[in-house]
Each structure stands twice: as structure tokens, then as C-alpha cells.
Write a structure and sequence with these properties.
With 290 residues, the protein is of the alpha+beta class. It has 2 domains: 156 residues, no CATH class; 105 residues, Serine Threonine Protein Phosphatase 5, Tetratricopeptide repeat (Alpha Horseshoe). It is built from 7 helices and 12 strands. Strands 1-2-5-8-9-10 form a 6-stranded antiparallel sheet, with no helix packed on it. The chain has a 4-stranded antiparallel sheet with strand order 7-6-12-11, with no helix packed on it. A two-stranded parallel sheet has the order 3-4. It starts with a helix and ends with a helix. The mean pLDDT is 88.
């Protein structure tokens, strides 16, 4: 009887303790940043320690993250980079996969390590050189305003979406690692495959060729097929006119004017012209002035 009573009392105490627990904000909250660079998905998942009045980066043990010592880069289990396609990182290849981002801070140089064994978590004593997939060195920059919480960004994406930077910002320090992706080969393979079976991809293929300075005659041939497949797509007729205009010879200019006039007529007949009436009028005026 006493045993049963004791068990009951212990159960009541345990339930009381469970219901009395209070959920508080994490000291180092989880963070995540994602973007697509070219056709590559780039994600960084990490934990964000706070300055809380501490000195973060510097020489000596007075600093939270001393120069010259291996750092898990963040709190708790560190930071994880995930990429679904190969990238070039500071000119070197990084295969698709998941990597811990380890760093060795310095005054004039940071070493950034992409580490294969994510299971080491925050235990840097388990670091093994052979588990490094890639190590690069970059120069740190100074921030004009302090950053209280460690922050990762995917910054500096260029105009043609082929390059960006993985950026770490904390306290008064910014560290950027350049990444690059080459999606042209992948796009060209898609074009080669899909234009054989689907006329609907002719316009996309033609636009890619035209916008990236590839074979103009091939772009015209594909866009002509796209216009034939959908004659009312006045936006395609307008692009075809621009393609002929780019060739520049007299015969091509005449063809460009004819295509622009055809696009103009169809845009005027449509419920909405999406701005193509003016685009065609401007193009026709430009071409007739040559």
C-alpha cells in the first residue's frame, strides 16, 4: 500500500513539474537564409549568438572568438551550408552537399573551411584535416554600424545571377566569400532536349540565345517557330523584330519593321497590350530613322 502511495505521489510531483515549465527565448536563436544563385539552391542554417556587451573578435583571451583559433562559426551546433549543385568558391570547386562552415578569424585574413563531418557540432577538438572539403582565405572588412546578433547573408548577387557572396556579419566585422555558378551548360542542354519535343519552348530558347549573345540566326529561327505556333503572341513578334534589328543590314531592318508593325497591330487588338504598343511604336520610329 505504501509503495503504491509513494508511486502516486511521485507521479503527481512529476506532472506538476512538467506543467510548471516555462518556455523562454533561446539565448542564441536559430536563423536561416536561402536564395537561388543561377540554378543552384544555397541555404545557410545557423545559430545566432549575441554580443551582449562582449568583445567578439581580437587577439588574446579577452575576446570571445580569439584570432587564430578554430571556431564553429555561431552557437550550439554551428552553421550548415547546403547546396544542391556544385559551386566555385573563391575560384575552387565545392561539390553539391552539406557542410559545416568553420572559420579561423584573423586581423587581416580569415580562413573559411567547408567541413564534411557535421556530427562534430561545437566540439572543435574533433576536427580532422582530412574531413575538410575546401579551405579558402579571404580578407575581412569593417562595418560602420555594429551587428548585435551574428548574421549570415547571401549578398552581392550580380546582374546575370552567376555570382554572389556568402557573408558573415557580427560586431564590427564582415567576412565575404565569393561563390560562382555556371548554369549556361545546363540551360543549353535543356534547350537541346526540349525544343525537339515541345514548340512551346522555342520562345524561351530564342530569348536565352538573344539575351546572352549567342547564335542570332538560331534565335531568329526559334522565335519564328514560336510566332508561327502562336500568332497572337505579339510580345514574341516584338522580340523577333528586335532580333532582326540587331542584325543591322538593310534587308533585316525591313523585316524588323514588318515584324514590329505586325506586333503593334496585334497589341492594339488585344484587351491589354502590356506596354507593347509604345514599345513597337518606339522601335518602328527608331528603325525608320536609320
Amino acid at each position: 500500500m505504501k509503495t503504491k502511495l509513494l508511486s502516486l505521489l511521485l507521479s503527481v510531483v512529476a506532472m506538476s513539474m512538467a506543467t510548471a515549465q516555462i518556455t523562454l527565448p533561446a539565448a542564441s536563436p536559430a536563423g536561416s537564409v536561402y536564395t537561388q544563385v543561377g540554378l543552384t539552391d544555397v541555404t545557410i542554417d545557423y545559430f545566432r549568438p549575441k554580443m551582449k556587451g562582449r568583445k567578439i573578435f581580437g587577439a588574446g583571451d579577452d575576446y570571445l572568438v580569439p584570432f587564430g583559433k578554430l571556431w564553429r562559426t555561431g552557437a550550439n551546433s554551428g552553421a550548415i551550408l547546403t547546396i544542391n549543385k556544385d559551386l566555385t568558391v573563391e575560384g575552387q570547386n565545392l561539390p553539391a552537399g552539406e557542410y559545416m562552415i568553420l572559420t579561423i578569424p584573423g586581423k587581416d585574413k580569415w580562413e573559411v573551411i567547408f567541413y564534411k563531418d557535421k556530427s562534430i557540432g561545437g566540439n572543435m577538438a574533433k576536427h580532422k584535416k582530412e574531413d575538410e572539403q575546401l579551405r579558402v582565405a579571404v580578407a575581412p572588412g569593417k562595418l560602420t554600424e555594429p551587428v548585435e546578433l551574428l548574421t549570415f547573408n547571401i549578398a552581392d548577387i550580380n546582374a546575370d545571377n552567376t555570382a554572389a557572396a556568402l557573408e558573415l556579419a557580427w560586431e564590427n566585422t564582415s567576412v565575404k566569400v565569393k561563390i560562382e555558378t555556371d548554369f549556361d551548360k545546363e540551360v543549353m542542354e535543356q534547350i537541346a532536349q526540349k525544343t525537339k519535343v515541345s514548340p512551346n519552348t522555342y520562345a524561351a530558347a530564342a530569348n536565352y540565345y538573344f539575351n546572352n549573345g549567342k547564335d542570332l540566326d538560331q534565335a531568329i529561327a526559334w522565335m519564328t517557330k514560336a510566332v508561327e505556333a502562336n500568332p497572337n503572341a505579339f510580345w514574341n513578334s516584338h522580340t523577333l523584330a528586335r532580333m532582326y534589328a540587331k542584325k543591322g543590314d538593310k534587308q533585316s531592318i525591313k523585316q524588323a519593321i514588318a515584324k514590329a508593325e505586325d506586333s503593334l497591330a496585334k497589341a492594339k487588338a488585344a484587351d491589354s497590350d502590356f506596354g507593347y504598343i509604345k514599345r513597337n511604336e518606339d522601335l518602328i520610329a527608331e528603325l525608320k530613322g536609320k
